[in-house]
Amino acid sequence: MTRQGGYNLPEGVNAVRFSSKAVTRVAAGRVIGLSNEKKSAEQISKVSCSNCSVRALCLPAGLTAQDIDRLEQITRKKTVIKAGDQLFRAGDKFTSLYAIRSGSFKSVVIAADGSAQVTHFALPGELLGLDAYSTQAHPSYAEALENSSVCELPFAQLETLAQQVPGLQKQIFNLFSEELRQEKDVVMLLGKRSAEARLAALLINISERYTRRGYSATEFNLTMPRIDIANYLGLTAETVSRLISRFQKQELIKVQGRAITLLDKPGLATLAGVSCSD
Fold first, then answer.
1. Of 142, 159, 189, which marks where a domain is finished?
2. Pairwise CA distance, residues 158 & 168, whole Å
3. Domain match, 169 and 100 both
């Protein structure tokens, strides 16, 4: 159970900033959103780039207020995706990028033999759909791991605007570069490392990404099921469960449901063979 903003967040609820007016505690100890989905959608639609909690990590990074206003003209469509629903499917025509406002997603590629491979876990402030640019078709599908919200960025309009706003064009290049870096990180993660090093590296990676978003570096929820973690790391679910138990015994982490605390982040980094922030 993670505590945030005066409320206890139950298992499976990500570290999204909740306001006291936006949540209600019920007797069962669950935290629910506004009174109905319609109100939730309306609430999200009122959030603009200028007051979005993850603006510093998304396309508006480094843009002037005037440029952000111009960007908002093409990003007015905000969408709520329920847990388990797909944002787009493999093979869909590439028309837009999607900026994650809240929640999280997994990207999955379907191999020729019909097997599924998890290739990425996306967090708030990150973009989905960048890998479809070259072929103009999505090579994977994106599924919400929890109730999530995104901003749709029609790429044709975004490209036109980028030609007029140098700062936006630079940010788009940065995002494509980040996509390539993440692919390299995955190759390194799944290379010659041991199973325990892979899991430790994933935990450090998620921790570092949450840190950049202003959240706790040591306390967060793993919204992805262990079977998805195993698939991503090239391990079995049983191996992941065994490693998590071992990490707890070694006092590297503490786990309660999907809530995880990194008790010894430097120790995990050493195990993973990577560097980490304090």
1. 189
2. 9
3. yes
- What distance in Å separates the CA atoms of residue 101 and residue 195, rounded to the nearest whole number? 32
Average pLDDT estimate for 180-200: 81
The DSSP result for 228-263, as a single string, is: HHHHHHT--HHHHHHHHHHHHHTTSEEEETTEEEES
pLDDT (tens digit per residue) in 237-265: 999 999 999 999 999 999 998 899 999 99
Last residue of a domain, which of 121, 155, 189? Answer: 189
Kindly state whether residues 234 and 118 are assigned to the same domain: no
Which residue in 46, 4, 31, 63 sits closest to 220, CA to CA?
A: 4
Domain ranges, residue 234: 195-272
- Residues contacting residue 113 through CB under 8 Å, at least 6 positions apart: none
CATH code of the domain covering residue 217: 1.10.10.10
What residues have CB less than 8 Å from 264, skipping those under 6 apart? 251, 252, 253
At 113, the amino acid letter reads D
Residues 161, 70: contact at Cβ < 8 Å?
Answer: yes
Interval 136-154: pLDDT, tens = 999 999 999 999 999 898 9
Q: What angle do CA 157, 212, 62 make, to 5 degrees?
A: 40
Check: CB of residue 227 under 8 Å from CB of residue 116. no
The structural domain count of the chain equals 2
Co-location of 183 and 209 in the same domain: no
Q: Cβ distance 253 to 268 under 8 Å? A: yes
Q: How far apart are the first and last CA of the chain?
A: 23
